[in-house]
Amino acid sequence: MEAGASAPLKTRQMATATSGAGRCRLSKVGAGRRPPPARVRVAVRLRPFLDETAGASEPPCVRAIDSCSLEVANWRNYQETLKYQFDAFYGERSSQQDIYAGSVQPILRHLLEGQNASVLAYGPTGAGKTHTMLGSPEQPGVIPRALMDLLQLTREEGAEGRPWALSVTMSYLEIYQEKVLDLLDPASGDLVIREDCRGNILIPGLTQRPITSFTDFERHFLPASGNRTVGATRLNRRSSRSHAVLLVKVDQRERLAPFRQREGKLYLIDLAGSEDNRRTGNQGLRLKESGAINTSLFVLGKVVDALNQGLPRVPYRDSKLTRLLQDSLGGSAHSILIANIAPERRFYLDTVSALNFAARSREVVNRPFTNESLQLHVLPPVKLSQKELLGPSEAKRARGCEEVEPGSPEPAAAPASASQRFSPLQKLSNMDPAMLERLLSLDRMLGSQGSQGTPLLNTPKRERMVLLKTVEEKDLEIERLKMKQKELEAKVLAQEATEEEEKENSRSLLRPLSRHTVTVAKPLKKAVVMPLQLIQEQAASPHAEIHVLKKKGRKRKLKSLDASEPEEQKPEDCWELEISPELLAHGRQKILDLLNEGSTRDLRSLQRIGQKKAQLIVGWRELHGPFSQVEDLERVEGISAKQMESFLKANILGLAAGHRSGPS
Ligand code: ADP
Ligand code: MG
């Protein structure tokens, strides 16, 4: 019954995007064969009548045929029934344990193999989705059962003496009216969904909490669920109007060579109700909510259809839900859809449409693969001579760029930073692609020799080749990320430019006519705008750490708009500020701390950093590690040197002034 259970496990060795402190750079360790397919599994669960007496007076509109099939009356012809076959059918007497053990538990083991899995509860409001996923203290559902088992599994597999060390983290979000909201940090606002170069879906800035026990899980999950309930009271049944997504990540690090790393993601999703808006009579906000829900569920249907028909374009990007599910539907996950249906006749049309959707979903084929990579930092330091790496002829040619002492001694294995350690290889990554290709083919050759019986994986040569590939893959990855970030940044800039223009327009409208002059003078090289009060205060203080230098008598050419008025030269004062180096250093340090430790909200407190830029910064930090200096911000693609300059001016001065007025 369970996807991929019979298929032999093949690994497509992939780099994994990880985040958090202590993260090491990961790399692909080789492209594998196309992974085996695993069809999306579909189970249908019929809930019992809620009013126990109702069953006697009103027969259910759904009837079980066997453990996988069911039938419903055909509304076009009451003489006939519509028959459906699924991977499992759970009748009204089925227990929470039946659903969990039959359809969910079997896919959990894939997480420990570094593969992704997802469980989606689908169906109209009131059909039992939340009951199935969450349940109650007396009848716990899929989420608590899966977490309990997963944590137990990871404890056993990651115990001392076992080959892998394991850790588990959780994130919890909801998609409400096409906004991605972090339930573990409700103040963080709408988050963006991004895709890394390997097709992994990620949400920069989304809170991740490490969990080691079920108590840990409950400690984060229960209040976060409360965040949804608060919304529910205010917005009238919001909980059933949003898609709730629990993301559990299992991270594995191999304790011995070759020090592989694996990451498996589990999505547990309680979808919003799939009822037909036309029949609910929704109005106002409820109608708007339904619109958003129906849009995303409608797009979900379109995605499923596009996958089934093998269309070249699958509209994942048309809704937040489908974008998030991109690696679960037709992607890299073992997926199970639990379609919840109700027995009452008033649900009949919603039941038929849920069953039709479920039947279509069953045709979708995923290709789960193992997210596996090498941890570079555990490899021994390698310093190679060009001759060793390139062979004598290439070494000669390459010597023009970098001179290498042929007999230079190997450096002592002293601790060195990753960048120092791999610098020779990074230079190689800039080499002619044809030469790199040669090296890669040599690597393939060595790999094939290895499979014939010579275990080369741990030899220095093999490691060297792996590192070379690593560099190449990393560069490719950076290029693709850069392009993505450029796109995003261009959008942000365009938006900012429009806002700026609007502000400028409104300002110019307010200006008195007499000041409608166009300055043709060059802009001052050093100009810092400060609140007047602060300038006066600083100028007045004899020991001020920020000195205001006033340069008098400089002329600025002013050209009148009115052509009849002659051009005149008016003296204009120019202001320049000199800040003590100590204050500057303090301001820079404060910015650096914020860049490295601040949440998106903290980052937004900086001048010129809006929500989108803050998310870009957090995303960059998650991918590349901490910023070592404020100027690293330029490396966050799209933040140009010019923007950087004005960012520093706007922020250092503010922070320095804060330092000056604060207790010292
Ligand atoms: P949904 O999340 O699909 O809107 P709920 O899970 O909230 O629906 O279920 C609606 C009601 O039905 C709840 O009171 C729930 O306890 C009850 N219910 C749902 N499924 C079952 C079931 N299998 N057995 C008993 N009660 C159920
Ligand atoms: Mg619900």
From TrEMBL:
**GO terms of molecular function:** ATP binding; DNA binding; microtubule binding; microtubule motor activity
Give the highest taxon in the source lineage. Eukaryota
| UniProt-annotated binding residues for ATP | 123-130
Q: Which SMART domains match?
A: HhH1, KISc
Compositional bias per record (Low complexity), positions renumbered to this chain? 406-419
Where the record annotates domain Kinesin motor, the positions are 39-364
Q: Where is this gene product found?
A: Cytoplasm, Cytoskeleton; Nucleus
Q: Where is this region: Disordered?
A: 390-422
The processes (GO biological process) annotated in the record are: DNA repair; microtubule-based movement; mitotic metaphase chromosome alignment; mitotic spindle organization; sister chromatid cohesion; spindle elongation
Q: Name one GO cellular component term.
A: chromatin
Q: What does this protein do?
A: Kinesin family member that is involved in spindle formation and the movements of chromosomes during mitosis and meiosis. Binds to microtubules and to DNA. Plays a role in congression of laterally attached chromosomes in NDC80-depleted cells.
What does the sequence similarity comment in the record state about its family? Belongs to the TRAFAC class myosin-kinesin ATPase superfamily. Kinesin family.
Please describe the quaternary structure of this protein: Interacts with FAM83D and SIAH1.
What is this protein's record name?
Kinesin-like protein
UniProt organism field: Chinchilla lanigera (Long-tailed chinchilla)
